[in-house]
Amino acid sequence: MHARSPPIDIKETIDIKETIQTLSELSQEFREFCEEMKVDSLPMTWLHNPDLLGSDAEHCPFNDKHAIIFKKIPTEVDDIFLVAHEIMHVIRAMDKMPLKIKPNYSIFDKNIASVFALILRNLLEDPVVDRLLKEEHKFDPLQHYENGLIKMRNSLERRVSCGLIGGIFEETQIVFNLCTQKLMWDLIENKETNLKWIEYEAWLKDNYPDAVNARDVLVSFIEQVGLDTKEKQRRIFDVITEAFGITSMVYVQ
Ligand SMILES: [Zn+2]
């Protein structure tokens, strides 16, 4: 996940060198990635905020640099893909790559608009980031994605049990999040035989049939256009904000 616009609540700075050292000892891919991309000299700060809402990490601009905020200090093998993912967001942001999607506070509730901006940034950028990590840096995202299935299912189940289902914006957010997830899982070659994916898909189709249909239409449109250039990202942004009736909620800077 990445970039939320409001100012961040800083809890504690994480020692980047020490964390990279720890994780590099656990993973050859990570060590080579850090060497190749000169990660220890990137203009960034890592912060720890155990109260981070909605995701395990986010990145945002911070005093002319980039900040990555982690919900938990990364020290384990299971954290490595997440850390590499956030670093790749920083590298791409330095290349001015992702489309700058901003919330329109003047018309909509501030929270809803910024959640939509965040979800759309993730939709357009996360699959690209993970493809680069997999194809150019030999990372295997499978374990991270399998953990993600459990998290997504838990959060959807919580919505059902709280009676939160039904709002039009909420349905749209679910469709976008499912779309991001499917685009990422499409990087896994043998996903059709992965038992965790099969089981999750069956559960999703039983509980969210309409969202799954909308997701699949969106995924095939995005795969047709592609996400690898700013122009393609822009085209997708225009089409989906129009199709889902949220053109006045978010804009491209
Ligand atoms: Zn991300």
Q: What fraction strand?
A: 5-15%
Ligand inventory: zinc ion
Indicate the low-confidence ranges by residue numbers.
3-7
Shape: globular
How many strands appear in the DSSP assignment? 6
Mean pLDDT: 90
The secondary-structure class comes to alpha+beta
Helix content: 55-70%
General description of the model:
With 253 residues, this protein is an alpha+beta fold. The chain has two domains: 12-94, no CATH class; 101-252. The protein is 57% helix and 10% strand. The protein is built from nine helices and six strands. The chain has helices spanning 16-26, 28-36, 80-94, 110-137, 142-161, 168-185, 195-207, 209-225, 230-243, and strands at 12-14, 44-48, 57-62, 65-70, 101-103, 250-252. The two termini are 20 Å apart. The model is unreliable at 3-7 (pLDDT under 50).
What are the salient characteristics of this protein?
253 residues, alpha+beta, four-stranded mixed β-sheet, disordered N terminus, binds zinc ion
Summarize this, please?
By secondary structure, the chain is of the alpha+beta class. It has nine helices and six strands. It folds into two domains: 12-94, no CATH class; 101-252.
